[in-house]
């Protein structure tokens, strides 16, 4: 017989709600262990560190044709400039959350993403980076001789804190690595669901490797996230040829596969996917009524919509689905007649 309402409650709905709540609590427990338990030690080591650039050895004083290695760029900045960077990061995420959740504006979100790409990416050369800060925090926890500044801790924790409140808005319009991929996506194709989920485990492997290498003794230590950042070469207009080729490959792939690095390799994205499950308020595809037309699922290039609802752990807060929602168009154009909810075709049971 035909179901009279496509939104009727399924027999296993209560079980799904219970499992969802259980997953939220488990995610919260893991987050507490990972971030809060080591916090006293981490903050005990934190200190405001500043060394005037003019006091550091330079190429002229060293002599012998010495050239400053590229890994030492950019040069240290005054503390007030670093504080400004952290403040701008916080403001940008607040604006992104407002644009995505309140204004529901894809157009202005793109403007914000371009601005963050220009500032955090090109001007700051990718150095206001929560992704790379993973390694600094891990090293500070593993080696008591290593000192990490309060500003580095703030850069690491801010996007995670915002994700607990509003989901992955850092990914949506603030992260320059995400912005550069978002802007090149021209003809997205859907990655098969099973393949998408399988590839998604790679970022957890990458995160584990980054933690392992950062926690090693000095002779074996390596910051692989920074060394193999595929886009930092474009931000600094320099770098090894092989990394420029890898970054170019990601951008070419990004023409068709939405944000391949963010979805499958970003180690910070793994942490954000975990804490965003606890989001107080996340992305809702429809503004005021739940529709079951399925247009949003077809429009999402990131595989972040399942069961016609945004998945908090996977949703990158890009606002693309808004542009394909019939209900959104009704609210955007008050003169458009409201014909009610659009429902999927009825299925026989």
Question: How would you describe the overall organization of this protein?
Answer:
This protein has helices at residues 13-36, 39-45, 59-62, 79-103, 106-123, 130-142, 150-166, 169-173, 176-184, 193-200, 202-214, 224-227, 232-236, 241-253, 260-264, 267-275, 295-299, 326-332, and strands spanning 305-306, 309-310. Strands 1-2 form a two-stranded antiparallel ribbon. Helices cover 55% and strands 1% of the residues. It is mainly alpha-helical and 349 residues long. It starts with 12 loop residues before the first helix and ends in a 17-residue tail after the last helix. Helix 5 (106-123) packs across helix 9 and helix 11 crosses helix 16. The chain contains 18 helices and two strands. The model is unreliable at 1-11 and 339-349 (pLDDT under 50). The chain has a domain at 24-50 and 73-284.
Keywords:
two-stranded antiparallel sheet; 18 helices; 2 strands; single chain; disordered N terminus; 1% strand; 349 residues; mainly alpha; disordered C terminus
Output the helix-strand order: HHHHHHHHHHHHHHHHHEEH
How many helical elements? 18
Oligomer: single chain
* Shape summary: globular
Overall number of strands: 2
Largest sheet: 2 strands, antiparallel
Q: Report how far apart the termini are.
A: 6 Å
Contiguous low-pLDDT stretches (5 residues minimum) are: 1-11, 339-349
Helix content: 40-55%
Structural class designation: mainly alpha
Overall residue-averaged pLDDT value: 82
Percentage of residues in strands: under 5%
How is the largest sheet built, in terms of strand order? 1-2
Radius of gyration: 22 Å
